[in-house]
Amino acid sequence: MNLTLPPKVTDRAFARLAEIAAATGERLPLRIAVEGGGCSGFQYDIRLDAPQPGDLVLEKDGQAVVVDEVSLPFLTNAVIDYTEELIGARFVIENPNATSSCGCGTSFSV
Description:
- This protein has 110 residues and is mainly beta.
- The protein has a single domain, classed as Sandwich (Hypothetical Protein Aq_1857, Chain: A).
- 13% of the residues lie in helices and 41% in strands.
- The chain has 1 helix and 9 strands.
- The chain has one helix spanning 11-24; strands at residues 8-9, 30-36, 42-48, 56-60, 63-67, 79-85, 88-94, 100-101, 107-109.
- It is globular and about 35 Å long.
């Protein structure tokens, strides 16, 4: 049985959002969107943005991640995380719906 669940946001991602809000003095949600394009057919648009009507809002400790209705099916059961590596720090998406992705980590196909 394959359950359809909304994306999950890790504690590490929410903690990074709190750090950004503290540094900027502005508390905007992190928007995760899926758009056509990229080297594999779809790409993620990850940015701070105000919530819009119809968005799914995932909240914890006063921080929020928002996903629009069109992007939501592409992010079923995905995990939104924050990682710090030698190449840099960034929000990442572990997406079980992606059948392939490219090296940049922001482009995928389904």
